[in-house]
Amino acid sequence: MRIDRDANPAHGEPGDEWFAASKKIYPMAVHGRFRKIKWTILILTLGLYYFLPFVRWDRGPDAPGQAVMVDLAGRRAYLFFIEIWPQEVYYLTGLLILAAMALFLMNAVAGRLWCGYLCPQTVWTDLFMAVERWTEGDRRERMNLDKASWSAGKLGRKASKHFLWLMIAWWTGGAWVLYFADAPTLVKDLATGQAPMAAYAWIGILTFTTYALAGHMREQVCVFMCPWPRIQAALTDEYALNVTYRWDRGEPRGSLKQGLKRQAEGLKAGDCVDCYQCLHSCPTGVDIRKGTQLDCIQCGLCIDACDAVMEKIGKPKGLIGYDNDQNVQERSEGRPAHYQLLRPRTIVYAALIAIIGAVMLYALVTRSFEGINVLHDRNPIYVKQSDGTTRNGYTIRILNKRPLARDFVFGLEHMPFGTRIEVVGAEGEVGGYPIVSVGPDRTREFRVLLFSPLGADMPKSTPITFRIVDTRTGDTARADDYFKAE
Ligand code: SF4
Ligand code: SF4
Question: What is the DSSP annotation of 339-378?
């Protein structure tokens, strides 16, 4: 893939393109298959983003009733039936690796699919452009409006556009903070001025960034700021399906009249009628006929624009389509196109997604709902008692990840018979073993003392295992440590 700056009229004339100010792009409205797909994805993704915080999920009286929420104060993340504790942040790592693999797979199959359809920058820019078209009209009208001198009409249109943009941006920032607190309560607090300062600050920051990025910077983010096009270009291969102008079919291009003239002269006339509809529909200002370019986000809108032209002039659709340069070359030399979806890289990415997904699922299904962390006293490491026994002290934290209070019996493994265990704050004991209670979805810390048996000759260091057993379910957790005697 090459960086064809000359191909992009948004970047000025060849020679001065590197330092020229960007020219404003006025993409025209298009209708067709890919536009419909983009609308569908836009509605689904934005609908999900804006309304998900209001979906309720009953986790009992001691946990938030919001389906998706990051509870920073409580140090928990909730995703429907899944509750993630801080020490389980590896799930997030797994999700990020999965997302990266999915991105690589998309890229190997069809280039910048993510950029064209799913990237938040694309989705919000699409929405902002729809508002722009609604308030200022389509491409030609907007160009004329920008050229026209200021009037009440122009002011009204511009003001309505910016007002609606700001409202969307504000709601975007507002929706974001709702993921960090109980949404209905926070909405009330925000409206009555009682929400935390951080909530207002984040709404302000996100309102500004959404308005700036989706309203004003648009394609500049994709072309100049985002690193993905560069990475993507290094990862792609000749079989990936990119939005491609099939020059074998389109060239030599020319108006309909010129085409007819060429045909009358017995010369080949391409299907491209040089109408510039593909260029005028492009949100990044790319003329795809100049070849695959980094600026192209693979949104497919030029395909729709060109298909509409082909339909009008009675030619088969698909002069621009998801294809690759290799196939265009093959066809131009009279050989059939060759599509190869299954290739080593697509197989490896798909396999990695399946393996990582399976490992994560296994870890999720078999995760334990109790845990025990042990910290041995540092100073003193051990204490010789007047009766000859040795005492070791520990700070033990017990985790109860279930939404109900639980009782655990403390146990000890690998210490000689007669070892005494004392838990400060224990609720009771059974057979000499202390019982402790831990509240729902809580951790509780205990001071634990171990006394070696009377008369036992303890080695310098004895590996031991602390054990807790749920008195009701028998669920068990263990943690290893040492008993020090010298
Ligand atoms: S060239 Fe076509 S696919 Fe690429 S960004 Fe422009 S409209 Fe989208
Ligand atoms: S829209 Fe199609 S016919 Fe028109 S200039 Fe682009 S490629 Fe040629």
Answer: -----HHHHHHHHHHHHHHHHHHHHHHT--SEEEEEEE--
Closest ligand to Cα 254: 2
Distance in Å, CA 282 to ligand 2 centroid = 12
3-class secondary structure for 20-73? CCCCCCCCCCCCCHHHHHHHHHHHHHHHHHHHHHHCECCCCCCCCCECEEEECC
CA nearest neighbour of 71 among 170, 183, 194: 183
The β-bridge partners of 77 are 70, 84
CA distance linking residue 299 with residue 53, whole number of Å: 29
Q: Which bound ligand lies closest to the C-alpha atom of 319?
A: 2
- Asked if pLDDT for residue 432 goes beyond 90, the answer is no
Q: Give distance in angstroms: CA of 317 to centre of ligand 2.
A: 11
CB count in 10 Å sphere of residue 440: 16
**Ligand number with the minimum distance to the CA of 309:** 2
281 CA closest ligand 2 atom index? 1
Give the pLDDT confidence of 155-175 residue by residue, as tens digits. Answer: 999 999 999 999 999 999 999
For residue 282 and ligand 2, the question of a CB distance below 6 A is answered with no
CA-based angle 41:43:45, to the nearest 5? 65
Domains of the chain are: 370-484 (2.60.40.10)
* Ligand 1 shell residues, CB under 6 Å: 243, 281-284, 286, 288, 296-302
| % of the chain residues with pLDDT over 70 | 96
Question: What is the spatial distance between Cα 152 and Cα 11, in angstroms, rounded to a whole number?
Answer: 32
Positive or negative torsion for Cα 206, 209, 213, 214:
positive
- CA–CA distance, 173 with 170 (Å, rounded to integer): 5
CA distance 270 to 259: 7
E strands present in 257-369 = 320-323
The candidate with the shortest Cα–Cα distance to 357, out of 118, 105, 111, is 105
Helix (H, G, I), strand (E, B) or coil at 226: coil
Probe ligand 1: pick from 301, 303, 306, max atoms within 8 Å of CB?
Answer: 301
Q: Which two tokens stand for residue 320?
A: 């621009």
| CB contact at 8 A, 207 and 173 | yes
Q: What is the pLDDT of residues 52-83, one digit of tens each?
A: 999 999 988 878 999 999 999 888 999 999 99
**DSSP label at residue 2:** B
Residue 319 CB–ligand 2 contact under 6 Å:
yes
Determine the atom of ligand 1 nearest the C-alpha atom of 320. 2
Dist. CA 284 → ligand 1 center (Å): 7
Six-digit token string for 472: 């009701």
